[in-house]
Write a sequence for this structure.
């Protein structure tokens, strides 16, 4: 099968990386989650400060190489999927420097994957037209693909737990996702 993976918070623990970066810049961790709502609406930052820090974090090559970690079992599972004959690619909103960083991180793990960056705020639908399976943590990208016949999965994050859809299967970690894909073949 032709499998497409979102990068941030599917392959990597991006939220943990972002949380630590915002915490160190703000000098406190009086917020549970890094989002516009928890930081801007709660009065910790202005929207332009929030956006500036967000850009800085995503473009931070050294910080990312040092502190942006793959989720457990992600790298091994990707290698096992490839070994089982599947094609695995990345379809991410990242572009420019953040996309280069994603490629560096993958290469460092010995993963030579096709990485497609659509740019922040853009739809992934066109980039995903030739794929059979797609997993993302952002419900918006998944909902866009309903009715296309693809197998859709949502990777759980603390932000998306309220989301439910009968045609989008929730997985909580890489072990579960790997088992799902393996069970399709069986
Ligand atoms: Mg994501």
């Amino acid at each position: 099968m032709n499998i497409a993976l979102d990068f941030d918070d599917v392959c990597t623990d991006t939220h943990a990386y972002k949380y630590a970066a915002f915490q160190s810049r703000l000098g406190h961790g009086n917020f549970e989650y890094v989002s516009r709502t928890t930081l801007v609406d709660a009065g910790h930052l202005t929207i332009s400060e929030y956006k500036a820090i967000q850009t800085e974090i995503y473009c931070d090559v050294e910080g990312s190489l040092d502190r942006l970690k793959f989720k457990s079992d992600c790298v091994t599972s990707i290698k096992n999927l490839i070994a089982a004959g599947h094609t695995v690619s990345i379809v991410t909103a990242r572009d420019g420097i953040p996309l280069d960083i994603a490629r560096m991180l993958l290469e460092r793990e010995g993963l030579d994957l096709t990485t497609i960056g659509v740019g922040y705020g853009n739809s992934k639908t066109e980039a995903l037209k030739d794929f059979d399976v797609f997993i993302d943590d952002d419900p918006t990208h998944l909902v866009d693909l309903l009715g296309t016949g693809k197998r859709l999965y949502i990777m759980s994050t603390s932000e998306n737990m309220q989301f439910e859809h009968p045609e989008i299967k929730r997985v909580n970690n890489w072990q579960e996702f790997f088992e799902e894909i393996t069970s399709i073949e069986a």
